[in-house]
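Forum > Structural Biology > Help requests

Title: Can anyone predict the 3D structure of DUF2846 domain-containing protein?

Hi all, first post here. I have the sequence for DUF2846 domain-containing protein but no way to get a structure on my laptop. I'd be grateful if someone could post the structure tokens.
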Amino acid sequence: MYFLRTASMFGAAIQPDLRLNGQVVGESKPGGFFFVDRPAGKYVASAATETEKTLSFALDGGETKYVRSSPSVGLMVGRVVLELETPDKAKEELSSLSYTGDAVTASAK
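Reply #1:
Sure, ran it for you. Structure tokens for DUF2846 domain-containing protein below:
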């Protein structure tokens, strides 16, 4: 699973942790991406600022999912919305983003 965020000045200061089934796997950083390797199954990705936004999806064996985080306007603080991105669009964008993950979160624990 790849997590990516477009580089933009809008909402740049909003960089919440991204969770996968409750476990922190990285941060939503502008112009960045990271990946985690997980087995097939059902997953809930989430990001929380003033409210928690979630995205539920199933991962098939051998499948790669691309989860985009995007800043959005909130009541008091901005939020980050999560959505699945198409493989073609995500792959096209990945080359312009910086890797923001680390070895600890990249593999399943």
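The first strand starts at residue 2 and ends at 5. Residues 2-97 form one domain.
Shout if anything looks off.
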